[in-house]
Structure formats: structure tokens, C-alpha cells
């Protein structure tokens, strides 16, 4: 099915590097952990601003750091390995690679294997020898998944035990972006928001992170086999995150494209990336992505399992699925979408829907359940799934296989029946020691969005919610990044912890490089708008900095503070191309002769920066003020040289 | 300041014509008024759909009608003239054109005058002779604006008098799109929505329209001198409308571009168009636009008045402004933005803002007030403004000159003080017999949007609200159609009657053709998402039709039902270019081998279309069902010829 990757076969992926305009990647170290180097991005402002650089959250990884020596063939530094010293982990040979893992691709159709192979790690069996690496075992026969037999390894287990891990310290430092700068008046900012029950602290401490994880309200997706990771946290009391999907499909794409898509997506702000590859070369493609990814990688293991049974859903078995879980866990996938809530009894509830089951994983399981008239093996084997995921600290993303595919089907019984089951499974996963988040819709008109958030918090005991959009109307294919951006901003405000992006190509085709960028930027907007409305203490800093730049005609600062500096500059240059206009005290709306903002400057000169008197008091002494103003006579005209027409 | 229009000077504007893909412009006549021809657009579906055409609201005017004989040099048919027969109107010579009206442009810099000149109409003075055309009068000296001296002419006055005008009958028919089709189950649909106090009827009658106008809750912007108009209504109990701004600026654009921008904007769904031209040739540009516009045209008269005093705000006088109102009213402008709420005492309230006053009209008046230390002449002469506007039925759009220009300044005292004054002015305008709507912000974080809507309804006595966005964050210049589309959808849901679009170029440059289209489509999304959430009985019809097309792989129908069929088709073709794929039973997400929607079809085959049993009942008889299902054995594979790889 897949197109030949001959040319790409021996090619090293070309990835985008270098800082964003006006930005530097900087690192800070928590006082308690000087060895940790936590990345941020700092945007330098023009000297006339007389303001410190604006620090923003950075997802781009070492790719934006000119000092980093990039080598895609070897992958990113495996810095987290040092953090495992005191953990009960064992290295082992791992599951042997099977041709099926790449869909039986061979010859010129087989994507090149990643050059470096590392032994996988997992939680040590209590019985196992200290150097278990010397005692290889074949996962195929491994029967020791019973979690009671393995040492605790997950962030959830550490948190419950009161242990603060380096990952927790790292994300606390990372989340504190600009918090100190925001401290004075931060209370006011928090008050200036409606958080719907979220409790966002003034300052994020490692202890706060630990507590949120222990309560199941946040997760740090961080597979022990993904040491290249720059840990991040997902929870409604932290910055709202976004996910970008990539993945080759049966009808398009290649390994190189997928690695660059990942690098490109995180450059613009994707906090996690899901590899939704289907067809051939899934294993090798995923290995290249993981070894080069500083962000958590999520997958939907049932997709690969289906490939292993040649696309025939009813041929799926627990054994094939289990084998796929282990394969991907050993590679380092950080979270798995598991559609264990699609129960046999719920399938008929979708029969009268306008768009039935639109989740690919959901429909695979529905078909399996019907064909065998059996309960889903994902549901019946859920505890074993937990045991496997726990051994590597793969987080659950409990899939919404029955999400609505249209406005007409939103919030129906099928959707909510599954959500209730996801709540039941959440408790089981927690008991097993796993980290859990919950996936949500989909297509939902605005007035039905809050019900989704409220019901998820209630049924799933405040486990983080992770939604796709939702799209607020069905009538705009080609613009579904926007129809869904509206819903995403709202549900982010209501408490959704992570928003899965939608690109302009949704429903129509596979996103290209530009679509990925537009999708990511749109979702950064939604996530940030939600943080602002929640009253996140750090969110408003960037808006205010950009607004001051706008007011003071610091065009370069306005571009550089934008989510997409390149597009902002390009749009400006289309109307006012001359370099001179970058410093001009006017914009294209009013033109050089008259300028609204100039007038405000005059008002400010007249009344000073002290809090303005209220309307009534203002009347008093206005004559005097007006006199001063005339005296000032600050004109709004520009010097002739700046007032030339632009052709 | 303006660029030479030499080449354009003798050129006839080229405009875009022809129907949208799969669409026909159709006309219906109300039973009570067979002479009226009310336009709609019908989208034909594929025969396999076995569904009637989907009727949608059509703003495109005769330009999309292949049967219409287009002549931009003569303008659109002046069909409304027949409706005036029984009205107390007089034709008169009108105000003589002054070189200042075009900014003193001359020679190759002067845009060509529109070839046809019609005598303006106005409400007759009770005293005036029946054929007042024989008694020319110079508006310059006219002193008979006292409204008690002129016959009632406005839709508001007719409505108060219990008179149903052809305009009211026309908009009732126009708004009833698909209502009949929606009647069964419409109640359910209405129940399925949160209207926040709006009362949208099952079926819109002329009497309902009259009553809403009489209550001041809706307006029909329809200057007596714009007989080319296809009347539309603005009110929260009707479909949410959108406005697109065009206009040449001191730094760019030409007459031809502006006329085509108008035609282009309405093609994609703009319900009204504001001409915000500055610089030279304002008068002639506006005439070309009006004579060719089937939608209401709005302006901000203070912009042209400022040009008449060479851009020096403090040189503005009531006389210059009054003269400009008459000039534009005679041309047929349907609504004026009047910033009469920017009072002297409110100016100091903006001194401590992050972005001060960003409204161009607001800052012009603020400067005037400060320079003279006088109350705004728009406020002190408000009743005379009402008298002039009433004589032509120009509707008020009371401007929000103190709207916030940043998240930091939203909902502050300056903004709300002005809003309270607008409420006071609304009552005066109504007493004078004028139609009124109220302009709103701007830049507002999500949690502060509803307060804007609630306060506007309260302070302005339910007069229609007309907002710009609002933008929900400041950090995404280049994407402000999206940052504002989020806020627009929300405030539309809360009750905003019309949404002023924002293009991707906002804050950066002047929108080109593509920006206008993207802005309009984005705002159609916002308006429609709002109507869906309000439970508008007709809104969901199009979503459901498109969702059925999507589910049944009727790709052509999915494209044609989209707000932007061309982009939808183009995106699809980028991934699956072959014509064959337009009928393929798969999409690029899953590929030819496995298809989610196929599986739902199988489920539907298994359980039939009867309402599905609930989860518990479902268990019973499932074995039997599964047996049937296996018997059916409907496979999801496609024939080999459809399953070829696509390169």
C-alpha cells in the first residue's frame, strides 16, 4: 500500500533548526537541583522598551539552540538516564524485531532502521538480580507482569509515596515561566478570571506537582525508555497544553517527512506529538521520531496491531495487542490511547447516529465486539494492560472511541456511557499505579461543551481531560482548525488540560507542513485564551508586553512577541514593505497623516500616568488641563520624510 | 497621499460573477406580496442522497445569478423605488458635489464619477408641495430638519405606527430559510440550545418583524436612497449577521479594488459592508460601491469630515460634519457610525490604559474635545443628527470610540461609561424615530465577554449589539481572524446581532482579496456556531446535511455544502487528486483498506435504523444479532481497482 521510500531509504532526515526571530533558548536550574537544565525561550525587546526579555514556554527542544550539536542519526542526548540511578529498573534484551512490526515491508519499501539500538528498561521484578542485563529474557514468554511482582516506577507511584522525582522538579521550574515577574499584582490577575474550580497556584513548587500527580489530577507522560524527553505536565492547574498529530498513512508520507513534521510541530509549540502512522514501516518510523523527540510521543497501539492482522479487525487477539504494547513500550512511547471504553453493549447505541462511530480505534473495537459477540478484549484484559504500562511508566490516554462525529450526535447516550466506563477504568489504572488522562470529543455545539467538561471531571475523578477540538459546527471543511479552535478555547477555559489540534485539512486530506503550523498556532491561541480566562497568573504577561509594543509602534517587538513572528512580519511587509516603516509611528489602517495611538499619547501627556480621575471629578480643572494641552501642542503629524506615499 | 489611479481612471470595475459550485440562486415570493422576489441559494445534492436541495441564506446579490444582465456602469436595478409609492418622499436637487468631497483630488488622481446621477429622496416636509422636485433647495441653507416638520419615513416609525412595510415582508421571507423543513422537531431543536433570553420564533412573520423593530430590538438598515438594496434585518431574534470592512486608505487601494472587494465579500457571506475609506476619492468610490451593492453599506462620516479639514481633528466643526452627513445620506449610505458617546469627561479615563484609545473615530473626537475643552459636538448636536438621519432612514450604529485595544483594557470604566451614554442616546434616537444599533469591543478575554453582552442589553434597552470580534488574546498578530473568531462565536451565542469581521491582516496591514475571503468565512463560522448554540430552528439543517454527506462519502455534496466549496475541494485534491477518489468509499485518514464509517454502516445494517436499545437491553439478543451480522458478512474491503496506492 505504501509508496516506495527508495530515495528516502538512505537519507538522513532534514530538520528545521535555529531560534525563532528575536528569541534565545535559555536554561535555568532549580535551586534544589542545580544539575537540571530547564529550557525556556526569551524574547529580547528593543532598548527603547526599557523592559526585560519576555520569557515564554519553550517546546522546541535543542533544535532551536544554535549551541546544540545536532545529529539526527544518533538522536538527542539521553539526559534522563542520570535520573534513574536510584530507581528499581532493569535493562534487558527486549522483544526481537519482527518483519510484521514494519508491515512486512522489504527491499526498497522498507524504511531504514534507526542506526543506534539501546537495551530497553523496565521496572525490576522484586526477585530479579541487580544486574538483570546479564539475564536476558524473551518478552514473548514473560509472565511476570503482575504488578505486585515489580518495583514501583511510575510518577504516580512515586507521588503517592511522597517522593519528588527530578521530572517533578523539572516541570515545576518549567511551569513557573514569568511567575516571579508576575508576583506583584498576581493575586489581582488571578481574581481577574473564572477558573471553574481549578486551583492554579501563584508559584508552582515541586511539592505542588507531586500532590497534583498523587491526586490523579495531573500526569507527566515519561516512559523510562524515552530518556531524550524534556518532561512536561498535563493537568488543569498548569498551563493548558496542545498536541499535534503526525503519522504516515496508507496513502502518503515517508519517514523523513514524519521526523521533520515532529520537529516542525514542536518548533511552533506542540507540547506532545501523537504518531498515528498506519500502513507499513510503523516501527522504524516511530523509532526515528522517538530518538529525536524532546516531547512526549503518544500512539494508538491498536492501529499497529490491526496492521499485524492485515487490517482485518475481527482477527485481532489479545496476544497480538499485548505484543504491540510491549513493542511500543520498549521503544519509549510515553502515552497510549486505549479504547477500552468501547463495550459490546454500547455499540448498538450508535446505530441511529447521523455519523455513527468516527473514531478509528473505536470502530475497530466495535467491529471486533460484533464479529465475536464478545466483550472488548481491551476491557476484559484491562488489568494486564495496566501491568505492562506500569512497568515502563507509559501513561494512559483512555480513548473516546464513541465520540460524536457530528453536531447531531454530541452528548448522546453512547458517548456518555463510554465516559462513565472510562471513569471506572481510571480507578483501576490508579490502583495499578498508572498515570491516566481521558480523551474527549470531537464535534459539539457551544452550548453542550461545558456539560462535557463537568461530566468528565465528575465521572473520571478529576483525571486530566484531553479533547479533540471540539468542532462547534460541521459546515466549514477546510476551516476546521477554526471551527474547532473555538470549542478548544472554551473547553480549555472550562478545565480541559490538553487540546488535540485540528488542521485545515481535517476531514479532507493529510496535513502538510503548512497545515501543521497553522494547526499548532491556532491551538496555541486556544490554549492561551483559555489560560487568560482562567486567570492563570503568568498568561497575561505576554499579551501586555505585545500590547505595549503595539502602542509604542515597536514593530519588531510586536512581530517577535507573536506566536508566529514570520507571518506577522510578512503580513506587515505586504502593505508597508519599506524597512523605514518598521520604525514609522503609524500603521496602515490610519496612514501617516492621522494616528489614533498618537492621540492617546497626547492624552497621556496631558493627564499624566497617575490614575485618571473619575468622570465627575474630571470636569473639574479640565479647562486648565486643556490649556496645558494646547501649550504642549504636541502635533500628530510626522516629519515629511516619514509621510511619503507608499506605492 | 493617494497613489495615482490613472490606469483605473477610465476602467470599469471587474467583478466576480457566477454561482458557487453546485448552487443556484432562487427567488421566492411571500404569499401576501407576490411582487417581491426574495433571493435564496439552493445547493443541489447528489441523486443518491435522495434529499431535497439545501436552501441557505444568500447575500451574494444578482452577481451569482447567471440570468442577471450585469452592468456595473449603471449599477444594480433600483427595485425598491416601487415600494416607495405610498411614502411621503420628495426628490430634490441635492447638495452640490464639492472638490473637497474627493479630498481635492484632480486630474489623474481623481477617480471617475459614477456615470449615472439620480436625484436624492428624503422625507417630505409636511408643508412642501407634492412635486418638490420642481422646487430645488440647497441643503446648505436648509433649516427644516426639525423632525416634527417631516413626514415619517423610517422603518422604526412605520413599525411603531403598526405599518408592515415591503422591507419587513421581504426580510421575514428571507429569514425563514428552511424553517418549514425544520418544523417537525423544530421545538426539540429550539429546546436544544441556550438562547440567554432571546426569543427566536418557529416561523418568522412580517408581524413579528414589525414588532421587533417597533421594540427597537431589530433594525432594517435601508436608506431611501439605496433602492438597489436587498433588505436584511439585524436583531438577536434573527440569524446572526456579519459585516466586512473595505475602504481605500491613505496608503493603498483604488476604486476598482473596492467595488470588487464588496462583491467578493458578499459572495462569501457578508451581510453588510462598511466603507471605511480615508484619503482622497472617498465620495466617488462610495458612489460606485453603493450603486452596485445589494447589501447595506455603512460608513463612519467623521473619517470623511476629517479629510475635509485636512486631517486636523481640532479644525472639525458641526457644520462640516453636518454637511458630510447630508452628502452621504443623499448617496444612500444605510448606516452611520456616530461616536457620540465619547464625552469630554471620559477622555481622562483612558489615560492609564495600556493601549489608550484605539478607535479612530474615538480618538478624533477625544482630540477635538481636549483641544477645545468642549463637550463633543456629536453629543451636543445629537438631536439634529437624528433629524437628518431620520429624513433618509439612515440607521444609527452608535460607535464605541472608547473600546479596549488590548486584553488589559477590557471592561474598564472608560468603556462602560461610554456604553451607558450610548444607552441614553438610544432613547433619544428612538424618540426621534430613528433605527439604532450599538457597537461593541474589541479585545476581551473570554471570561469578560458575557458581561459586555449583558450590560449592553441592559443599558441600551435591547437595541441590537454589533461587535468587532472580540479578540480573546493579543499574542497572535497574523491570526486575529481566529483570536477574534473565538470571541465572536461566543458573543453571537450570548445575543450579539451582528459580528464585524477581522481579517488575518488586522494590526499589520490592509486586507487583500484572500484576506477578505478568509475573514468572511471565519465570521460565517462564528455566526453560525452562535446560531446553533442559541437553538436557532433553521441553523442545524445545514450541519446535518453535510454530516450525512460526509458519512455517505458524497464528497461533492460535502464540498458544495461547505462555506467555502473551492477550498474544501482543493484540500481534498491535494491528497487524493484522482477524480475516482471523489466517489471512493474512503478518505485519506484511514486509507482504502480500513474505514471507520464503513464499520458504522455495518452496525446500522445489524441493528437497523430503529432507535437502538439502551445498554442493558442490548445485551439481550446480541448473540442473535451477531449471528445475523456474520451471515451478512458485509466486508469493508473495496474492490481492488479502488484500492490502488496513490503516489
UniProtKB/TrEMBL annotation, chains A, B:
Residues 19-88 form the ThiC-associated domain. Binds 1 [4Fe-4S] cluster per subunit. The cluster is coordinated with 3 cysteines and an exchangeable S-adenosyl-L-methionine. Substrate binds at residues 245, 274, 303, 339, 359-361, 400-403, 439, 466. GO terms for molecular function: 4 iron, 4 sulfur cluster binding; phosphomethylpyrimidine synthase activity; zinc ion binding. It catalyses: 5-amino-1-(5-phospho-beta-D-ribosyl)imidazole + S-adenosyl-L-methionine = 4-amino-2-methyl-5-(phosphooxymethyl)pyrimidine + CO + 5'-deoxyadenosine + formate + L-methionine + 3 H(+). PANTHER family: PHOSPHOMETHYLPYRIMIDINE SYNTHASE, CHLOROPLASTIC, THIAMINE BIOSYNTHESIS PROTEIN THIC. This is Phosphomethylpyrimidine synthase. It comes from Maricaulis virginensis. The lineage of its organism: Bacteria, Pseudomonadati, Pseudomonadota, Alphaproteobacteria, Maricaulales. The gene is thiC.
